[in-house]
Write a structure and sequence with these properties.
Helices cover about 35% and strands about 25% of the residues. The chain is an alpha/beta fold.
Length: about 300
Amino acid sequence: MRVVVALGGNALLKRGEPMTAENQRGNVRTAAPALADVARAHELVVSHGNGPQVGLLALQAAAYTEVDPYPLDVLGAQTEGMIGYVLEQELRNVLPPEEELATILTMVEVDPDDPAFADPTKFVGPIYSDEQAQRLEDEKGWPFRRDGDSWRRVVPSPAPRHIFEIGPIRQLIDRDVVVIAAGGGGIPTLRMRGEGAGLAGVEAVIDKDLASELLARELSADVFVMATDVDGVYTGWGTPEQARIATVTPSDLRALDLPAGSMGPKVDAAVHFVESTGGRAAIGSLHHVRELVEGVAGTQVVPG
């Protein structure tokens, strides 16, 4: 089977853990054997989150005041290279020597007319005081929103439309190469119109689950797995009546009254993949990746 596995941020950094290179590598090293099990039996493509890493780079950039901070598309590209390097190296350490791997820097097309550009909602970077936020808004034109008692910069989160490197990714998979791609939702890229037409990065952040679903769909994957730090989708989460959903159709999953939060994009991505392709999607624990692929763990979203 052709399998796309989207790694949640917990594969790189556990909640509350310091953002050190050693911690991130240690977590990837823990995840690598489960991914290697999948790679031995199936065609495997891995995507991943990058939220904490982009935030860290933004903090580092803010500390260097001699130049303007690097734009988000450049920071996204940096994290794709950094995380891809660690993933690829740790996977090589547990796979047979003849297994081939490649990390693909991935640009993802977004629509310049996407409504998200008129209504930035995605928090990025550090928190600021009232005075700091007002100064940055005046100096750089950055929009800010309240995040608890502080302010944080918000940027657009447009929908992903196309993966520019999908051709090379397909060619690598056809040669049985394990591919790491579309990290952090990919690098948000505009196809410019008129004079000076071409490609250009944009200050935005694409939801990684939606970008991973697009990757799975454009690759005609059989199974799309979202590996996170919980073992599935629950009804009644946080109450004595909470219960994991084992198997569900897209229409039944859409009808459930699930709380808003990080599970929302995963549910939307799973529903869209299954309805669009007739394939199977799974949401569950990183530690059960092989079982998620086999259909015996987590929440399995199947055609109606």
